[in-house]
Amino acid sequence: MSRAELPGALYTAEQSRALDRTAIEQFGIPGFRLMQRAGHAAFVELMAHWPGIRRLTVGCGSGNNGGDGLIVAGLARQQGVDVQVLVLNDDFEARLQGEALAAWQWAQAVGVELTRWQTGMELQGDVLVDALLGTGLSGPVRGETAELIKQFNRSSRPVLAVDIPSGLCSDTGRVLGVAVRADLTLTFIGLKQGLLTHDGVDHCGQVLFDSLMLPDEVYEEVSLSAFRTDSDDLAKLLPPRRRSSHKGVFGHVMIIGGDHGMGGAALMAAEAAARSGAGLVSLATRPEHVTAALTRAPEVMVAGVNSGQDLQPLLERPDVLVVGPGLGQSAWADQLLQQALNSGLPLVLDADALNLLQRRQYNGLALHDWVLTPHPGEAARLLGWETDVVQQDRFRAVRELQSRFGGTVVLKGAGSLSFDGDAMHLCNAGNPGMACGGMGDVLSGIIGALRAQRLSAVDAARAGVYAHARAADLCAAEQGERGLLATDLISRVRRVLSGIE
Asked: Which residues are listed for (6S)-NADPHX binding in this entry (predicted)?
């Protein structure tokens, strides 16, 4: 398996340590052997990405992460590379224990020397290796460690992070004071969930993974934290259609939204639902938007509604309702949301539907057959938190949302999370081009269409999030991230969901 092929299982720092302990204690794999494998894997990737380097700087802490770095330094020294190993303590050697001490004894035997780092000292390497801090970090990085990390970040030279960029929380992806900005991160044994969300996506660069040859039985002994969604999941959730299929098999989704001046949001959701394979798509919106909607999307059945009373008879036909795109927060919006809540149908709630939930305290309903799709700001309003508190621990936030509101919750953002109270799913596809208006409307339409096609709420959510993000990556690969529009995704979503991207 290529190190670029990331596994589907995600772990916390403690779970990763449990995997390490299990391999050593139950399966008899020596800890130093694992360290040697880690150092060798890092060295191989170092030479593959930056061939021909003549000088290398390795920053080493006194823990096992530093031991991995010492192995890298020793291997580089054996290949004739001029190696500068920087340490931060005068008593560095005395602090070493266990496998890290064994790594130093081996590295010393092949000619590696230590240099006590001082502020302003030149970093001599063509490439920098970060092996300062591992996954055990619990508080902010301070003192000389913080200063050396800042010097790494000021340098124009590429950085390889060993296991995790120093200063990054492996559980949440939050920067603990200051963190290394790596170009490449090679992580070991268990893929840490924090590498793929929040600040992690800005600090890890390309993420690679190496299991260090642990047998599958080790992973069976330790629980995981989350699942990473990829194209294989789509193939399992959306098998080829039967030749005898008809539109009734694939469900009817209704989009409800599009108040004055916001008709485009509801229409984008409807178009996305149609392109995502729903058998029938209808749209309930302001009467003045009907003509434009029919002109742009004649496949969509459009009805103008002036009140919740107008909407009520239309709710007899759909299988799923998507409420919120362009809904607004007027009395009209309130009435439409109330009718949707009373319908008993599966729901996808986005945008202003979520704001109305918070304002009207509909959360007491705790419906179990809905998908809520907040971005961090909406999540903060629903929880009564600050947005930065949501972002500091996105896993905690999505769990709290699901606990309060029930159903399935999608917390959008870098490393979008889907959680139904049981399984956590993370999507690491997507790119910054998605930071524009309308993306959430398209996503809600996709999830609604998948729900109408008889996927469970959590499967519709995680598959929809992945298809949406992957479509954005296809668009960016073709024409770049800057200037990406939400409507650009709609035709690509069809290809992703059909497995022909």
From this structure: 64-68, 134-140, 163, 265, 326, 375, 441
| Mean pLDDT confidence for 270-278 | 98
Q: Based on the domain organization, do 418 and 470 belong to the same domain?
A: yes
Closest CA to 258 of 278, 281, 288: 288
Handedness of CA 271, 439, 426, 350 (dihedral sign): negative
Q: How many domains does the chain have?
A: 2
- Mean pLDDT over all residues of the chain? 96
* Strands of the 320-323 sheet, one edge to the other: 191-192, 9-11, 226-228, 424-427, 416-419, 408-411, 370-372, 347-349, 320-323, 252-256, 280-285, 301-304
Cβ–Cβ contacts within 10 Å for residue 342, how many? 11
Q: What is the pLDDT of residue 122?
A: 95
Instruction: Check which CATH number belongs to the domain holding 282 and give it.
Output: 3.40.1190.20
Whether 84 and 175 map to the same domain: the answer is yes
Assess if residue 390 is contained within a domain.
yes
Which positions make up the binding site for AMP? 412-416, 440
Annotated binding-site residue numbers for K(+): 65, 130, 166
User: Is residue 363 predicted with pLDDT exceeding 60?
Assistant: no
> For residue 219, what pLDDT band results from cuts at 50, 70 and 90?
very high
For the beta carbon of residue 441, count every other beta carbon within 10 angstroms: 30
Mapped onto helix, strand or coil, the DSSP state of residue 450 is helix
Domain span at 449: 231-238+246-498
Q: Is 471 inside any structural domain?
A: yes
Would you list which residues are annotated within the binding site? 64-68, 130, 134-140, 163, 166, 265, 326, 375, 412-416, 440-441
- Residue 302, pLDDT above cutoff 80: yes
Residue 145, CA distances (Å) to 104, 107, 131 in order: 20, 22, 11
Tens digits of per-residue pLDDT, 405-427?
999 999 999 999 999 999 999 99
What proportion of the chain, given as a percentage, has pLDDT over 70? 98
Question: Are 260 and 371 in the same domain?
Answer: yes
How confident is the model at residue 367, as a pLDDT?
A: 65
Nearest to 346 by CA among 371, 373, 374: 371
Q: Positive or negative, the Cα torsion across 32, 34, 38, 44?
A: positive
**pLDDT confidence of 364, banded at 50, 70, 90?**
low
Asked whether residue 167 is domain-assigned, the answer is yes
DSSP conformation letters of 114-150: EEE--TT-----SEEEEES--TT--S---HHHHHHHH
162 and 31, same structural domain? yes
Shared-domain flag, residues 193 and 253: no
pLDDT in tens, 152-183: 999 999 999 999 999 999 999 999 999 999 99
H or E, element range at 69? helix 64-78
Res 359: pLDDT: 82
65-to-36, 163, 213, 435, 459 alpha-carbon distances in Å? 12, 7, 18, 35, 37
